[in-house]
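Appendix B. One record, verbatim.
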Amino acid sequence: MKNSFLLIVAFLVGSVTLAQDQKQKDTEWEQKFEQLGTMLPTPNVYRTASGAPGHQYWQQKADYKMKIVLDDNNQTITGSESITYYNNSPDDLEYLWVQLDQNMRARDSDSPLIGRNSMRDTLSAFAVFRLTGDNDYDGGFKIKSVKSGGKDMTYIINKTMMRIDLAKPLKSGENMSFSIDWMYNINNRMTDGGRSGLEYFEEEDNYLYTIAQFFPRMAVYIDNEGWQNKQFLGRGEFALTFGDYEVDLTVPSDFIVGATGMLQNPGEVLSAEQMERFEQAKKSYEKPVIIVTEKEAKKNEKTKAKGTKTWKFKAENVRDYAFCASRKFIWDAMAVKLSEGNEPMAMSYYPKEGNPLWEEFSTLAVKQTLETYSKFTIEYTYPVAISVHTASIGMEYPMICFNYGRPDPDGTYSDGKKHGMISVIIHEVGHNFFPMIINSDERQWTWMDEGLNTFVQYLTEQEFDDNYLDYEYPSRRGPAANIVPYMSGERGLVRPIMTNSEQIRQFGNNAYAKPATALNVLRTTVMGPELFDKAFKTYAERWAFKHPTPADLFRTMEDASAVDLDWFWRGWFYGTDYVDVDLSNVRWFQMQTEENGLETRNIKGAGQGIDGNNDGKKDFGSDPQPFVFQEWTGGLGEYRQSLDQDKIKQSANGKNFYELTFKNKGGLVTPILIQWTYVDGSVELQKIPAEIWKINEKEVTKVFMKDKEVAKIVIDPDQMTADAYTDNNVFPRADEGDRFEQFKEGKD
């Protein structure tokens, strides 16, 4: 009995140990094809499981009437605004939240406190300035009053957010109006940095202003989050509410102004000659018309007017407002015919320092952007799209953006400068679509505007070179091969795409390049352009002028294409794995009709046989391995009995069977693109879907039957999957065997 007991104990301990070993092995499998399931929010009446807005979807609205004064002598902005806020939510609101983004520059701001820095043996003047700051600059909003119906409202300011308490709750379906008076000192972008501010031209004592985040703006109240009142720390951009704007901009009388919206009083602010050119531009479709010439701009620079003019603008259904103003501006414009009755104007404002580069390319880049984005997303619905030149910036707002790209003082420029300027204009104008129209939350998910926009920017650059250049455009982000150094880099520096803006380690790679590349891979390699384009356009149409979330994008792309993409989102967006497919083993067989046993000789590209019987061959060798055709007898079932075995034998006779073993060394599952080059010189490209990895995510073996003898096999020959290491993609290996090289040279 004692011995039996010990045997039972030993058996149980062994079973537990085996179970633990099995559990350990199971944890190594990451279930890369498991459905996202609870990782995505539960669908509801506001956001459906299909990715579309639900039948009870709602969003708030905020209309603004503003009178703004730009003081060029003191470099200040003074404003008085009236906000009408519409509560379309099902909730009663006891208070409102307003964004005060300029307070990032206030003396009590958290932004400089959370910035990391360290000392070095030597520090430049700029580095010391960054450490000490500008003690003379008094930044941030100076709130003068907050009133409703002439009565003061109770409010409290918490850094970059202001809470306004309501005398009584704003009930569902109601609206209310209130006013805010304020001012602030404009920051010098060239020393303090920032998305907006001034650039000073010392030689002629003139300023160029690109002004944004310049007024208190309503925060977003939304179904999936409530108030989006995350503090503005500098990196995470904006979550904003749509509304209509009426804006009066008072500036020195010799200034030229560009802004969000359509100019309402051109006859009051332009000369008769400029008005005539403005009207000509509305019918010019092939090239821009110069409205304010370089000669006129140079004249304005020399004499400063003492009076003022007020430029009046209106904009409908926009989420933000920005403007530019300077006496230095040259202004050109042209019409873009998108469809019958929809002909927005593409415009550029730039100082003489931008020429000749800006006059030659800026407005054409705006035009191309509107055309390409309208094709892949939704047709552009706003009346204008403006590109403004100032140094060292790329920043976007509805209908207007601020862009770098300045030639050398003598007017010369490199190809790199030209391409950089064109790319940033396409990118920033493209932001009209993501997120100005398809209005994602930038403060939470940078990639939803930057990544999607960078992807369509890549498509636009390719069409720009077709129309205006005689060479292939050198796109920096989008091509799969370009993301390899980041994705395969040091693991501690790589974060998932699904990371909040403030926590990203490599911002440009994570929020711009990787999601853009992911979408390009999805389009070209996984779904195909036709399916992808239809699904992507469906997403744009569903969420135009609404507030989409990542789940809405993920679900719509599947819903509109019938392609299961959970594995793709999981790997590319929620993980940090990379692509590295190793063609680890290749074996070549032909059928032999006489049953004389099977040979187990391995023909290895990597030099190691899986079954331990490698005979040292590292290329295809001179002869294939044989396999025996064996007829089935008895117990085969009705299906097998119905097969014509002689016909099958005949069809396999003389064919080449290639057994390929693939190892997933990078962890990111991917389609396998196989290029077969045959001995006769012909080439075939074959695509194996990513689902081949479903049963075994680390290693798969597959047999291919070919009529012709293969000379070379290459995995991902055109670098379409972002494979990190291409040396293990080739058989024979680059340094092994010369059969293929001999064939190319006519020696075979």
